[in-house]
Design brief:
By secondary structure, the protein is α/β, with parallel strands linked by helices. The chain is built from 14 helices and 13 strands. It starts with 5 loop residues before the first helix and ends with a helix. The protein has an eight-stranded parallel beta barrel with strand order 4-5-6-7-8-9-10-11, surrounded by five helices. A three-stranded antiparallel beta sheet has the order 1-3-2, covered by helices on one side.
Length: 368
């Protein structure tokens, strides 16, 4: 207790007790720490690794055996521009979003749908890229036609992005539309990953209920809920905020989105940095998002890819630190020495979880 602030110490005790309840264990107060102990408590009958793995799974967006799809960089490619669509294989982006929504003018929507349908089949052999489609919102009255045309492609998108998901009604209507089209087109086996958006104050307030309902549909096998995107530009307009370089006015919003997303064990994709010529500003905002827990960032220009990718990938130094800390922890667990210091810092469970998150992030990227 003496090595941590009081608030951090007591918060950690509460978290630890909750973990014990989750695994049906009894926390026993110890006076001096010891093997299989944390913050002066011992877990009776439950290996410490089991508690760690549960916490890690919530932080690294892992869900059983389902393959993790990295989206450190999520780039929009306008569907009406065939030249840009055909450059996707050489971009080096994690997730290429074939765009039907804001990036396409109303009089180009039909052309965009047809281009996307055609290009999806051309991209069939592309490996290492999540080929996604952003359809128009439920309220646009364009969603159904988007899905009917695009899903006739032989190589259907692996991920569907649903913008302006403001209410539970929006996710229900989208799901009903998708289910109806799949039934009519004899494509019952198609089960895309789904990413929703928070783009308004209403969407932020309703985020938890929206994701909970989407999670229910996900369990039914209609799609796999996989992430949420923060649509900052629409959010600015909705609340009447003034955009600044450091985006301090969005601090609460960004933190809430990533927190709720991680509670559902899904990815959180941060806001677009619109000045694609400002590499310094992009780097600062990307690193800030990564520190806040976001798993990736939206981008609008190929020049942004390497900067954002680097920000959301643990450095070699960070990986070495994490590897050494985990090894030191396991050594002390085996020896029964209890609490210990590492590189001048007292090692507690949250620090160990951070180290394991680093290693898991690298594994997720490499195995994709």
């Amino acid at each position: 207790m003496h090595f941590l602030g009081k608030s951090a110490y007591f918060s950690a005790r509460v978290v630890f007790k909750v973990a014990c309840v989750r695994y049906g264990a009894q926390p026993r107060r110890l006076l001096d720490g010891g093997q299989s102990s944390f913050m002066g408590y011992e877990v009776l009958g439950v290996p410490s690794s089991k508690i760690v793995s549960r916490s890690i799974s919530r932080n690294v967006v892992s869900e059983g055996s389902r393959k993790y799809v990295p989206r450190r960089t999520l780039m929009y490619v306008p569907g009406h521009d065939l030249k840009k669509l055909r450059k996707i294989p050489i971009l080096g982006v994690d997730c290429a979003v074939l765009e039907c929504e804001d990036g396409v003018a109303l009089n180009k929507k039909s052309e965009a749908r047809e281009n996307i349908r055609m290009v999806l089949d051309e991209l069939k052999e592309v490996k290492g890229v999540d080929i996604a489609v952003r359809v128009n919102s439920v309220g646009s009255q364009l969603l159904e036609e988007d899905l009917r045309v695009i899903l006739t492609a032989e190589n259907r998108p692996s991920t569907v992005l649903l913008p302006k998901t403001d209410t539970v009604k929006d996710i229900v209507q989208f799901t009903d539309c998708l289910r109806s089209i799949l039934k009519d087109s004899a494509l019952p086996s198609y089960c895309p990953r789904l990413i929703t958006y928070v783009e308004s104050a209403e969407g932020l307030i309703n985020m938890k209920d929206i994701l909970r309902r989407a999670e229910t549909f996900s369990h039914e096998g209609i799609y796999h809920l996989d992430g949420v995107v923060f649509g900052a530009d629409d959010f600015y307009a909705d609340i009447g905020a003034v955009k600044t370089l450091d985006a301090a006015e969005l601090t609460y919003v960004r933190q809430k989105i990533v927190t709720v997303a991680k509670a559902f064990r899904i990815q959180a994709i941060d806001m677009v940095f619109t000045d694609y010529k400002d590499s310094v500003g992009l780097q600062l905002q990307s690193e800030q998002g990564a520190r806040n827990g976001y798993t990736g960032k939206q981008i609008i220009h190929p020049n942004q890819i390497p900067i954002v990718c680097k920000a959301f990938t643990p450095s070699a130094e960070r990986v070495e630190w994490a590897t050494q800390l985990i090894a030191a922890f396991e050594k002390h667990q085996e020896s029964g020495e209890g609490a210990f210091t590492f590189q001048g810092h007292m090692v507690d469970m949250p620090l160990l979880l951070q180290a394991k998150n680093v290693i898991q992030t690298i594994k997720n990227v490499h195995k994709a």
